[in-house]
Target: Asparagine--tRNA ligase
Amino acid sequence: MMTERIAELLLNGQPDAKTQIQGWVRTKRELKDFTFLEINDGSALANLQVVVNTDLADYAEIIKGVNTGSSVEVRGVLAASPAKGQRIELKAEEIQVYGQADLETYPLQKKRHSFEFLREIGHLRGRTNSLGAVFRVRNACSYAIHRFFQERGFMWVHTPIITSSDCEGAGEMFHITTFDLKNVPVTEQNQIDFSQDFFGKPAYLTVSGQLEAEVMAMAFSNVYTFGPTFRAENSNTSRHLAEFWMVEPEMAFCDLAGDMDLAEEFLKYIFKYALETCAADFEFFNQRIDNSVLATAENIINNQFERVTYTEAIKLLQKSGKTFTYPVEWGLDLQSEHERYLAEELFKKPAIVTDYPVEIKAFYMRLNDDGKTVAAMDMLAPKIGEIIGGSQREERLDVLETRIKNQGLDVSDYWWYLDLRRYGTVPHAGFGLGFERLVQFMTGMANIRDVIPFPRAPKSIDF
Ligand code: 4AD
Ligand code: MG
Model:
């Protein structure tokens, strides 16, 4: 018999139909004439209730072996359920126990566990309602991202993880090496001799696929990346990971306005798709995690995002009458408290801030005619702060060379990047969405470590 997914049965299963399911026992309730088992296979938030009658062969032995956490296969017949809140249940005719779970040591009980505790048992936390819902939404968003771009003719390109260029120029790269660290070759000046390393020069884990995405956009017009990126910042916050996934579209023949339009359309699309396909999970977040989750989703889908320049944003912050920890002054970067004030308190929806001072942004952003600002855009989300960072890229060879030099970077490292400006250069733009920040925003989860299955952050690398 074919195994069916519980999500499908809960939705469309018909009384009297024979079926077979496989999954993990969430709870067991023994009564006089029968036992109820709640089974979950990860396909849905809800469990399927299995009714086991005492007349089942080997009843006592089977029931003894199916504690919370054990894995089972159940064959039987569906029946309309008299219980409240569930349409259908499964009357067991045959139960096979795959693996028992020791009640004394199994760490998940039928109660609410703290997210801190669940992080300590990361290998089991996908079996809880909350993390199960988060990972299903994460999956739906991943699928929606590909669908959004593929429907619009963007090509998915694979950019390297190992790289020699620091895209953001922020010095937050993880250095990788093939050296035996007990025996690192040094030069006469007592410096590490990278000429002997496998790569012949320093190699790093990428902080962004953007520069390589630009290469591909200069041949395929519209492209996107979706993959892991790394930041060696020792930021122990609820919004930073050392390894996170980024979505980076890059479009040739596109300016900053087109970039912002795409970013807004993109976010609306992902929210809509996730809300439609994971309705029960969203209900759960709204009830149990953050009671503004559904309103936020509706707000994103139905309202235009705010757009302000950095210069306007500074004025708004100065006029706010709020006391901030960090100073607000033209030329200084916006801190998370400023970003959150703008999106959360002032506009009450995502806000796109544009045209930041040249000094605080990366070398590749296009210099505006005022000579003081660049064609950058950051999308700020309520409760999260920066969720997207993007820009129109500098397509003029001479301006770009000067920018690279002014930032103290080595022009020769960027020869191939500069070649794109030598041969058939075009205005182009793109952005990077922090995927975990999106999932955080969507689900209302307070800590970014709880929206990725295996968080990599200071003090979180157990397995
Ligand atoms: O603003 P960032 O640094 O922009 C770039 O890397 C550009 N090269 C993107 C592009 O234009 N193609 O990072 C983009 C987004 C941020 O807005 C944020 O959402 C997320 O990546 N991000 C992080 N997410 C989790 N943990 C971290 N340590 C993050 N650093 C950035
Ligand atoms: Mg940024």
Notes: The pocket of magnesium ion (ligand 2) is lined by residues 378, 386, 389 (CB under 6 Å). The CA atoms of residues 82 and 88 lie 8 Å apart. Residues 126-172+207-450 form a domain with the BirA Bifunctional Protein; domain 2 fold (CATH 3.30.930.10). The chain has two domains: 6-99, 126-172+207-450.
